[in-house]
Amino acid sequence: MASVTVAATAPFGADVLERLAQHHDVELLLTRPDKPRGRGRTLQPTPAKQVAERLGIRVEQPQKLDATVDIPTEVTVVCAYGLLIPESLLQRGLWLNVHPSLLPRWRGAAPVERALMAGDTTTGVTIHETIKELDAGPIAAQEAFEVADEDDAGAVYARSAELAARLLDDVIAHRPEFTLQPEEGATYAEKITPADRELDLTRDARENVNKVRALSPHIGARLADLIVWRARVSDDGVFDPVEVQPAGGRRMSYDAYLRGRR
């Protein structure tokens, strides 16, 4: 059982942390500071911190990373962390980044969401060395999987976390050769903006359905005053909402929403 440090914040990172802890001794979690959330604006722990506290893993939450941060292990796994890692720390031991795409495709902040928006039918997970340049480090392991028409971001993230943990087990145990990434085929997954959430019914129905899939169940696509969580292309080729959430309301079927408006 290898000893590792994990740097993670978001739900995807929390899922990978939990899976890693089943086979490795996670000595430390680095995660972002707690943030105020909800109507009461009370401080809430990050998803990764919640997992670490449940598993009895030591947690540190620096505002930023610098040379004063003590990393107790030779290997650090980075997954959906969200803070810049300075070169002074990257020079200490091996830093492995978990990226849910087939690099060099979809480098950047929202690889799963952008892949689904683009209608990709194949994606995967890449384990690569963390370097100064964004998601550009040499690759230790990579594996693809097919994306079904009904898969949303939640399904892809769950599949990616399962695959990432398996790939990490092998990389940590056997330290394979690293392969430089090609620059050809590199694309960038920009952070999701409010404009990205808006559905445009003048556009192709499949494009709008892909946007709904990409933003469910964690962000939500918007159609006027509705958040659309599930949708399909009807038999006559029209965008057809399936599950929606009115402003200030609960999730419901689109049929129930229409009945309530009569």
Provide key terms for this protein:
single chain; 262 residues; alpha/beta; seven-stranded mixed sheet; 27% helix
Beta strands, count? 15
The major sheet is characterized as: 7 strands, mixed
**Total of helices:** 7
Q: Could you say which structural class the secondary elements and strand pairing correspond to?
A: alpha/beta
Strand content range:
25-35%
Helix and strand arrangement:
Elements: E1 3-8, H1 11-20, E2 25-30, E3 35-37, E4 42-44, H2 47-55, E5 59-60, E6 75-79, H3 87-90, E7 94-99, E8 107-108, H4 111-117, E9 122-129, E10 139-146, H5 153-174, E11 188-189, H6 205-214, E12 221-223, E13 226-233, E14 239-246, E15 252-253, H7 254-261
Helix pairs in contact: 1-2, 1-5, 4-6
What can you see in these coordinates?
The protein has 262 residues and is an alpha/beta fold. It is built from seven helices and 15 strands. The protein has a seven-stranded mixed beta sheet with strand order 5-2-1-6-7-9-10. A four-stranded antiparallel beta sheet has the order 12-13-14-15. α1 (11-20) packs parallel to α2, α1 (11-20) packs across α5 and α4 runs antiparallel to α6. The mean pLDDT is 96.
